[in-house]
Amino acid sequence: MKIKLLKNNIQIGGIRYKVNLSFLILCEWLSEYTKVGRILSHIFEKEAYPFHHQQVQGLVCSKMWELVELFAVKGKELILDFKAVGFGRIKSKTINAKHICLLSNCLSVVTKIS
Amino acid sequence: MLVPERVDKLDLKQQREKTLAFLESTHQQVVAKLSAILGFKAEAQISEYLKGEKDRAQTSKTSNSLVGLFLQMVEITDEYLVPEDVRQVLKAAFQSLTQKYITALLLRGKEAGEVELLIEKLKFIRKYFPEEYESLLQEVPR
What we know:
The complex is a heterodimer.
Chain A: E1 3-6, E2 9-12, E3 15-18, H1 21-43, H2 50-80, H3 83-87, H4 97-113
Chain B: H1 9-51, H2 56-80, H3 83-108, H4 112-121, H5 130-139
């Protein structure tokens, strides 16, 4: 699947989704995790330390799943439970249809790439 | 040397399934919320329109804003969502609009032109509701 990241947009397999900033940060963090995974895998080479190599892969995947779940939990709290208004993290005084649309898109994309 | 903690393959599989199920359920809640907000707006406008039926001038004005409101909803969702999600989100609003509003117009018996005009205005939503639009066309009195 071809994934292209644009400004506040992400294109997956020809479909362009508008996403929010927190989603782009999530992508950045997931990318950092994969980098860490690659570096640790390199340290524990597959042939030399097969057990540790496998554990590194498992650990990185596990942490990435935790991050994705945290994103969904926080997204739900901030947008669906209107907590973002209290934190003053959005420009408008209330949560509107656009904010919910963006969250919906982000969740669609995360599900798609998971 | 750093030794990572043990993570079993089975645990990972379970974690993946759990996270995906959570994502799916959250997404459904988001879609339902959006649908309820937009559906409620449409419902409120339609009720207002049906109440103010006697005043012809006001009715005409409300009729335009009613269609305008729905078109606005499509515009917002179309800008942000993929067609399948737009369809899911606007289904309730579209059903209210077509069932209540158009039925009310048809029951009056003398509004065929207005129904036709409305259906014409809604033409572009064929992208989201192709079958529903086709059945709407059948409703126009000949």
